Amino acid sequence: MSVLIAIEGIDGSGKGTQAARLHTHFLSQGLKSTMLSFPRYQQTRFGQKVGDFLNGEFGTLDTVHPLLVSLLFAGDRFESRELIEQSLADHDVVVCDRYVASNVAHQGAKVSDGERAELIEWIQQLEFSIYKLPAPQLTLFLDLPVKFAQQLIAAKSRRSYTDKAADLQEADANYLDRVRSVYQELSQSLGWKTISCLDGQQLRSVDEIALAIANAVEFCFRS
Q1: At what angle do helices 206-222 and 15-28 cross, to 10 degrees?
Q2: pTM of the entire predicted model
Q3: Are 124 and 99 in contact (CB under 8 A)?
Q4: What tens digit of pLDDT does each residue of 142-157 get?
């Protein structure tokens, strides 16, 4: 049976880098592995509109209701459902750089505590029950304080969907801090594996984080 693994975290936490490293790790173990990254900005119509949103073409973060924003991100995965299902059919493991939990955390961070549970349920029902996306067997949360994440964002190379140094979400430190808090709550309540990207007050190296992830994956599937 194939396994779907989602790597989550705030912008700048190294999800893409670590998803690629985990994919390579699985290949080195003789497993058939592939990697998917969401949003698929250039490959889906919804993904293109996600890029427009992140570029501020629809207004500021608080201009568009998060429920409506969630439709863009969910639609990108719905357009990609056949690809996800075929990837699972053809491989032992599929590693996702962002998945449904990213939509939950980012949109949940925009509403009050009292509204969050209802919005989270809406997104999960939409993506898993209505769009019938496969659920991940394991979610890894890369936990990194915002000040470090924004330093790493500033060092990123040009992205396909924006010419800006930081998109709408990446540029707002207060927003990212709220997203991190929602991620932390979700990780604790849903039994995800949290990987700290810090050693004390120092940023851990890419290799150190990759090793921690590989060990966590091995432990989770052995237990």
Answers
A1: 60
A2: 0.91
A3: no
A4: 999 989 988 887 766 6
